[in-house]
Amino acid sequence: MAVVSFLALGLADYAVIALYLVGMLAVVMYANKTSAMDDSESFFLGGRTIPWWVIGCSLFASNVGTDHLLGLTGSGAASGLAVGNYEWSATYILLLLGWVFAPRYFAYNVCTVPDYVEKTYSKGLRDFLLVLSLAAVFFTKITVTMFAGAVVLKQVVGLGLYAASALLLGLTALYTAVGGLAAVMFTEVLQVIVLLMGSFALLYFGMREVGGWTGLHEKLPDSHFHVIKPMSDPDFPWLGVLLGMPINSIWYWCTDQVMVQRVLGTDKVADAQRGCVLAGWLKLLPMFTMVLPGLIAAALYPEEIEKDPNTAFPLLVTRILPPGWVGVMLAAMLSSFMGALASCFNSCSTLFTMNVYKLIQSDASEEQLVKAGRIFTVLIALISLAWLPVIDQSDSQLFLYIQGMQVIWCAPIASIFLAPIISDKVSSNNAWITLSSGLFLGVAFWVGHDILPIVSDSNGITLSIMVWAIILFVICMSTLLVVHLAERYMVTTNPGIETASEASGILEDEKKAAVRRSYESQEWAGGATQGLAAALMVAVVGLTVHFW
Q1: Cα distance between residue 170 and residue 177, in whole Å
Q2: C-alpha distance across the termini of the chain, in Å
Q3: What is the value of pTM for the model shown?
């Protein structure tokens, strides 16, 4: 690993960090004062009174963790702007969340995504996805955020893993357990402001150091400045970028509790849509504030980057930022770490309390539900602390393999969530068959792609994971169609026989009618928001064409 000099923080840096922590405390106190915490809806959904601008900032902050600071900058240094496609592809998926998925969640009046699955399909499928959701949040979000945070803090300021992580986990769990969703989301507004300040400062000083856009072009190959790569590219083939990324993003943005809970923090569909549009505009920025600094690091420190691209972010922070701005950047790092973890803690707490504890203790009072949520938040933090030795003994490759596990479930879950939008006659049995077969194929691909090269001399499967996402999605949608047609054929040829679809009873006709009435009575965002959404799409297309 390349050597990164530790920072000697000055008085101005400590002052900035102290000011940030005081600001966090003030925001938590404000959130607690404005949102009562005496019932489950207030604690887990902020009383459904969260403003649209808070929703937008929270969606962005929940996504941009320390792994983004480290990963996007490192990938930018290694391969150029193409990794920023993850950020730009999220823009139109956020619009899909606002205009397709969120109205359905509101119509079904759910508190969690598993609740929606139960009302759409069955209790059994809800329980399965509940377990999968909790495992996915811990292993692909909490674990990776902690690992990235530990790497950055160690390389930038020389802090030990245990002391730094314990302190940050304790602070995050404290304000999450005390203030619930409202405290988490309001503090994320401050975190977004600090994160953008620090990121733009890093970009400014980096561009000044490298000699501007001209100097950057002179020091790097032309391939680093293109977002669309040929199909032969192992990481970002153009077909995978244009079609595979959105499939994976549907799971992440539209069906994962961490993100969906943000839009459920209001009772107005229009506010949820406005929040999604704001988050979409914010997602344009990481290409310039996180990926582009990676290119700057590659131009300024080619030898260090060749040894380890993941040192790009620490190198920039330790070598080009002046006193005072170092404190801002450290505050930005704390913001990304705490914001992402707080969102995960709160969502795990909501899933456990509302979908496990509430079923076990069916007569639990609102006060008991809030207490259970707080206890589980602390428990998740303690489990995360207990996981620190695993993180300490692991290298970055382990966490890349864990992140790669998302390829197992993204396409199957996206399929079964899109299916009832297309037709309300998709049965629970059909969803089970599609999900189980899709997960089996996903596991087989993941083993062949990521595990086989480790345990043997074989190269394993060399197909891009994003191209595989397209293939698996087509297989899952085809399975849904074939099973649906088979069930319809059974009904037609055997009128006296109940099909699995009818026996499971997805929803009775009167319940479907009630959901439809609720959906039709919603007030959606007006022309101004729709215009900004359209402008966002035009901006994404224009930027993609410009950097093609």
Answers
A1: 10
A2: 32
A3: 0.91
